[in-house]
Amino acid sequence: MLTISTGNNAVAAAVRRVKPAVVAAYPITPQTEIVEQIANYVADGSLDTRYIPVESEHSAMAACIGASITGSRTFTATSSHGLLYMNEMVNWAAGARLPIVMANVNRALGPGWNVWAEHTDSLQARDTGWLQIYVSTVQEAYDAVVMAFRIAEDRRVYLPVMVNLDGFTLSHITQQLYVSDIDGFIPPMELDHRISPDDPHGYGCMTGPQDYFRIRYDIERSMRESYAVIQETEKAFADRFSRSYGFTDEYRCEDADVLVITLGTLGKEAEVAVDMLRDEGIAAGSMRIRWFRPFPPLDTRDRELVVIDRDYSFGCGGILADAIRAQTKRDCFSVIAGIGGQEVTYRDIAGFVRDRRIGEEYWFGVDA
User: Fold this and answer.
1) pLDDT at 368 over 70
2) What CATH fold (topology level) applies to the domain 248-363?
3) Which of 29, 106, 101 is nearest to 65 (CA)?
């Protein structure tokens, strides 16, 4: 079925199709529409789920943890300070190996108060053990949520998945959306380590130095296993729905001399910049990183790299640029742009490429 949807409503529509047993909800701008729309589905009877409105984001993740431990499929959504407030439980969910799916609508952190797009909120959670995917269209938001449940609940993974979409520039933008019948695409959830009154046992007990590191390594082992699960899931999705995805979304990269590397909606803006640069005789390509955890192997060959970060790690640099350097063992032109919703157009991106200075960092809009 073809319809028109915002990114937020696309996430809610995917949740309605997946039919989780429990949804825990707490509102925060610009995510609120997701849990509001899910509440509407529950109210009109089109979604049969236990909808739990809680008093905080910390409680929202705690409720998901409690439900998931029993083997129930669970979902929640948050943004920015909400994600930070639930951080204790975010770590607990991954450590407990619970396949919770959460949508995070990327928003800047205060002070000063700002409700516009930035990736620092989710990238602060990059080391918690959650898989992280960053989407750039309404359709991709819908599809990513559907696939996230299948990936998270695979026995080889058993880790939570965070689906990230840019605040307002995707959460509230309107685009075409194909809503498909997904019956049978996601197998019934079977959590091997679930608890029940029929099989009582301890969970999350004190773990000493002789065992704790083994538990942490097991998370890393499953993160590595998730590469294959992601590939298998995306192939199965493409075979059934004819929409193909990968660890990266590449545009005109085959013969490129310089690559623009981004996360989120800036990737689509970069594609327009690439077309402009090609008309000028500059062989540019766009590589949008979709999966940040697990971080994908990248084919950058000997091309120059322009990395645009809508985030920052103070005292270190752009978080995406740092990951690119670590993975490729090569330097780049690190551009810090779009923080707090700062407007970055395709013309600006084309300018970054023309004026690139490999090995340097450049803050867009800041006079040196």
Assistant:
1) no
2) Rossmann fold (3.40.50)
3) 101
Residue 233 neighbours by CB under 8 Å, 6+ apart: 147, 150, 151, 154
pLDDT tens for each residue of 101-131: 999 999 999 999 999 999 999 999 999 999 9
Q: Distance (Å, rounded) from C-alpha 279 to C-alpha 295?
A: 32
How is residue 322 written in tokens?
A: 């740092």
The distance from CA 269 to its chain's CA centroid, rounded to whole angstroms, is 18
- Confirm or reject CATH 3.40.50.970 for domain 2-182+210-241, answering yes or no: yes
- 27-50 pLDDT, tens digit per residue, is 999 999 999 999 999 999 999 999
CA distances from 124 to 21, 90, 91, 105, 255 (A): 29, 11, 12, 14, 34
Is-contact 263 166, C-beta < 8 A? no
CB 20 within 8 A of CB 12: no
Omega prior to 200 cis, within 30 of 0: no
Q: Measure the CA–CA gap between 358 and 285, rounded to whole angstroms.
A: 16
